[in-house]
Amino acid sequence: MPTSPSDPAAGYDLAVIGAGPAGLAAAVTAADLGLRCALLDAGPRTGGQYYRHPAPGLGATRPGRLHHGWRHYTALAGRLAAHTRAGRVDHLAEHQVWTAERAEGWLLHAGVCAAAERRATVRARAVLLATGAYERQLPFPGWTLPGVVTAGGAQAMLKSGLVLPGRRIVLAGSGPLLLAAASSLVAAGAEVPLVAEAADYLGYARRPAVPAAVPGKLAEGAVHAAALLRHRVRLLRRTAVVEAHGTDRVTGVTLARLDRDWRPLPGTERRVACDALAVGHGLLPQIELATELGAETRRTPDGAFALRVDARQRTSLPGLWAAGETCGVGGADLALAEGELAAFAVAGRPPAAGTVRRRARLRAFAELMAAAHRPGAGWPGWLRPDTEVCRCEEVTAGRIGEAVDALGAGDARTVKLLTRAGMGWCQGRMCGPAVACLAGGPAAGPDSRPLAVPVPLGQLGRLDRLGPCGRPDGPGPSAGPSAGPRG
Q: Is this structure's pTM higher than 0.85?
């Protein structure tokens, strides 16, 4: 049964971490079912990375033109606003959860992004992780040049800032995000001479029944393909950017054909002029909060780690659910279905059969997509000894090779200790997969870190002075439930 909002010591029925598609769907569905919810997100507005908004000062009147499926977001946002006014959901914007602990339910410790001295603790009976994913990057010579951005970063610049990373933009890497990004960029007026896909799309043909079961995905792909065809954008398969050129900014790239293991084929190189490069090789689930608690993980077909969940989105830890990209990258439609399923499970109610079937079809497609775009083992053939692999600590491929060959490092952790690769600001999120591959040892396990994000020391020092209801002792409002509706 849901707890009473008038009893602040009881906390929330459900705390949802992440206000993207999965988190939004879970929060509003749970509130529909009578649960008292907290929705925490590091961003100032809902939508996450997928439904990223233009900055309010830009005066954008039609943000939906930059998104696929914007109507789903507006419907969820409307429901959330109604539940917030009624006091059923507290939307805690700019609250970045950095750790969680089990204590007669759950305690979530969060910092307030706008002020380092403010933090809050949220108590809840159940927690849903909808923390999304971040981009996988494979380094190559020149990837640190100004003008080289991630594929998702190019979309973010357009969606939130209404700006382009350049006028003539090459897209490269692997995965469906490339086509979506290219389609958005050309629609905004950019010149995109080509999209270089390192895979060959044949993986989808090996199980034709899977994509056929999700016609919406096929239609989405057709929309992107039509946009590229209309703007005369070439799609090159089994091709990668193996070097970016320039001094103060990227001025061109060298492309090369790849073999089945993603090794560059000698003699196939050619140079293409551009003033920006958007590159990415898929997404990696962001699961550090759960792995530190000991939640079970699984390997996805593209080699990433995701949380292991059952048919109702329950993780291996009692009271902890997960939905969306944390369970394996699969896109917004899958995230919406899984968020809804998780809410029904937390409420102890049976979900609609159609939602269960939709989730199964979309998850099967996600697994096929991951297998089709899995990075090949030969991609280190792009590197030179002076290529920076860890940007934060400026560790080159040559230094990593020396640690392995001359100093006997046999795994990513030993390489980190010897070279500092992965010890910078991003804590290995950018270079971690590359360092692990170059270390050549056994496959690294999932990230497990006591603090999921950087935390000011002042917040750590005040943890033992928190009240029993999660009220902060420092500046800032309480993060406990409100006593009634809020306007």
A: yes
